[in-house]
Amino acid sequence: MLFRLVPPVIIIGLLWSLADGPRALALLAGADWRYLALAFLAVNLQTIASAWRWHRVAARLGQAIAPSRAIAEYYLSQLVNQSLPGGVLGDAARAVRARHEAGLGIAAKSVVIERLAGQIAMFGLLAVAGTWAIWTPGGLALSMDKAQLLVVALVICTVLLVVASLLRLVRKKWSLRLGRSIRIALVNDGAWIEQTGLSGLILALNLASFSLCALATGTSLNAEAILVLVPLILCAMLVPATVAGWGFREGAAAGLFPLAGASAAAGFAASLAFGLVILAASLPGLFVLFRPRKIRRPS
């Protein structure tokens, strides 16, 4: 696990030299706290909406999790994901802590499917917005070389999403049965309408929080940049060889911000601000961690 701490340190060290670290730090130090406060609010609303999505997925699989408890457990899982390498240990712990209502199998499925719904939404946005930006005349005002770079970035992001999803399925002996559970939780009996709305809201809050961090550090992103570049930056957080996406997210932001007419230092600063906001927004998980908890066993 300690090995995963090395890449973020190395990447951020390289960015300090390549992306004008002192300038990025100055932008971060002078960040507008009002936009950071709005970003903080957006991240908290995203956590609550994600917890509700988990509550609804679990309910369709036969696992009764009260909304208040789902929110508390989601905050705790966010705190763990922000603190430990891998980015999924908090979700694993969430499944284990919720096993008493319906067993570990269903608890694990509900967590996996809830996270998968988020990845599907992100991939769908990238597919639509990326195609629109590339084929629309003047989209992002990219030159041919930059357009090719964006295509490569889209492909890499897609591969990361697909591989991450497949690895989660292959690791479980019940992967075939998981397909049926996915249909029950996300598709059947109108579930797709509810899940589309929830996932769209969560994704919008995620994009808004990063865009507000960019605005706080002096960069105003247009709609195309928010819909295409920001999702690519956020996808870099899926790389498991890191802690909460640190390093890879900053590298992606520094590399992609110039496509929107901003500097690499601006991208570096915006990503640092976003990481700090997410970390601060996960701190309520400490109250859940140290709060006495009653264990409800299945009847």
From TrEMBL:
Record's subcellular location: Cell membrane
Entry membrane topology: Multi-pass membrane protein
Transmembrane stretches, start-end: 116-135, 147-170, 225-248, 268-290
One Pfam family of this chain: LPG_synthase_TM
Cellular component per GO, a single term: plasma membrane
PANTHER family (alphabetical): BLL5419 PROTEIN
Entry protein name: Lysylphosphatidylglycerol synthetase
Native source species: Devosia soli
